[in-house]
Amino acid sequence: MTNRVGMRAATDFEGSRWHISAVQIPVDGGDEHEKLLTGLRELRARILFDRGRRPAFGAVVEDSADDQQLDYGAWHFLARRNPDGPPLGYIRLSTPATGHLFQSLEYLGPEQYQRVLADEGVDAAHTFEHSRLVVEHRARKLGLGAYLNAVAIGAAHHLGARLMIGTSGTADGQDSFHARFGFVPVPGTRRYTERYTEDVIILVHRPALGAGEYTDLVAAMDREFPALPTLTTGADSVATSAAPDLMRQAPAGLSSPPGAEETSWRPTLFEPVRAQDLAALTELLESGRVRAVFDSIGDQLDELVRCREPQRRFTPEDVAAAVREQLDGVEQWAYGTWVWYPWSGRLVHVLPCEEFRLVRTDRNREKIQRPQQRRLFARRIGIAGLSVGNSAALTLAAGGIGGRFRLADFDELGLSNLNRLRAGLHHLGVNKAVLSARQMFEVDPYLDIEIYTDGLTDENIDRFFDGLDLMVEECDSPKIKLAAREYARERRIPVVMDCNDRGMLDIERFDLEPDRPLLHGRLGSVGSADLDTLTQAERADVMLAMVDPERISSELAAAFGQIGVTLSTWPQLAADVALGGALVADAARRILLGLPCESGRFYVDLAELIAPEHNTAVPAAVTP
Fold first, then answer.
1. Which is higher by pLDDT, 57 or 228?
2. Residue 48: is its pLDDT beyond 50?
3. 470-473 and 448-452: which strand pairing?
4. CA-closest candidate to residue 497, choices 437, 439, 442, 547
5. What number is the average pLDDT over the span 203-220?
6. If you average pLDDT over residues 515-520, what whole number do you get?
7. Contact in structure between 606 and 600 (CB atoms under 8 Å)
8. pTM, full prediction
9. Phi, psi (deg, nearest 5) at residue 146
């Protein structure tokens, strides 16, 4: 199912973290382009060699590595993480001007190649070929391959391609990868190729049919193609940059004592490869504010190289070599990010953002695949009410469901909240939005979080909802519950709510049903403005109507009559709240990925599910 959220996801889940430069080498070459082309060819050959997996690319003369006449007249795209950083990926787009040299033509032979074009109803003058998609080993599994593929396809669309054709390997699922962009295999073209040591197949793509799940991303690359910066001539524009001298010596004092800003909630991130960050990190270490230093970067690098190649049996020497390649000349202490958590006085060393998330969510795969993970990290989720909502917030953060959050709660943590919130006694008196933000940042320091410590108010609610992809509503106030839904419906934002009683999950797909009645019509035409002045008893009655008095548990039904008499408020258990966090996170994942998830109310009632009639275990044999 494709929805508003799913369609937007393609344009930003791969993000702008990759810096792409482009150049078209003239058909007749030219001295000013030869050094550049040599550098590109050497880069391709080294990556294609892949540590000996493709031996044919190892035995190349230095000045003619992966030498192909097809490079002339073609567009070449190079990717970096930073504009002045080393190249991490490359792809080539060949135009009809050199169609007589296409790899697919050579592979098929002229007669079969012409049959393929005829079957597609396209002539050679409108056929483009992209090839040589390569990504440095240390940048694999981060989405760069998909991003580069979209760049080349978008450029071809912009240049008027009616058909794209190419050869694809199959050993690592490359053909399946291209299928996600709308490429389809040509029947009868699969065969083993010695040079690539794997089966190769011909794939074709019709721009008029879109680009599969990457249609929006390719369209964005189509628009951005004319504005891509030009790859400068000269071998130095492709060379891998060496680590600067400032990274050769660690700042003194990686460990100290005291002081934590009590109201702080956002960590500070230092990248030592940046001179300004290194100076600030050194100043912090000398300030005496750091209580403890945690540096497990060696173990994180070990996990990184292993999860990239789970099928490989690593020896200690293999791991050390792979880590050296990942570091690429940077000292281990300077690699990645040092995260300063001022509220605890802790300084923690972690991998760079993409690698950090690759490892942290590695065990999500098969349930949430890596492209889906990147899409989810680009989504913005609002959570109002961080008592019950705290469980949802932490589960969403831990699961990688959302990378941008807005949190709203005016209340401070009290002792009675500790029957259900994941917090400690030292957190008493801390605003709940502050507390939740801290806890989420301690799971992932790269999150983008905004907090609203006044809760949702008439003054800030418009700003809070601006740009949200999903709303999790867990407020105690009936008026705010209705107001949040009024704003969400107006902006076509789906709303999810857990009621932490009988595992009730409430879903309102305003993104798909903009005229849907609020709370499934349970309050009729009542709006938030009608709830300005309520007594405590009236408030309880409205809340009861919202949750459906016919379906609540007998315990909660009995409690409503005692609120303000023998009970200060309605009862809530940690187990119910934890279950609610799981239900909200699962619904959020489905909605944000465009999976089936309709409006309605759903019950995961453990009292009913954990009952004798649902027991699936075989009874143990009774010994007489």
1. 228
2. yes
3. unpaired
4. 547
5. 92
6. 95
7. no
8. 0.82
9. -65, -40
Query: What are 395-407's pLDDT values in tens digits?
Result: 999 999 999 999 9
Tokens for 317?
A: 């020497």
Q: What is the C-alpha separation between 511 and 366, in angstroms, rounded?
A: 27
Strand ranges (E), 453-579? 470-473, 495-498, 504-508
Calculate the alpha carbon distances from 235 to 35, 96, 193, 329 in Å: 5, 27, 31, 19
What whole-number distance in Å separates Cα of residue 113 and Cα of residue 163?
13
Residues ≥6 apart with Cβ < 8 Å to 245: none
Residue type, position 58, single letter: G
Residue 517, pLDDT score: 95
Length of the chain: 624
Can you read off the two tokens belonging to residue 42? 């050497």
**pLDDT surpassing 80 at residue 304:** yes
Q: Among all chains, which residue has been given the structure tokens 């909502």? A: 389
Q: What pLDDT shows up at residue 55?
A: 55
| Mean pLDDT score, 441-445 | 98
Which residues are 128's β-sheet partners?
164
The DSSP letter of residue 125 is: G
Spatial CB neighbours of 179, under 8 Å, sequence gap ≥ 6: 203, 212
DSSP code per residue over 391-454: HHHHHHHHHT--SEEEEE---B--GGGGGTSS--GGGTTSBHHHHHHHHHHHH-TT-EEEEETT
* Structure tokens, 122: 């396209």
Q: What local confidence, expressed as pLDDT, does residue 251 receive?
A: 73
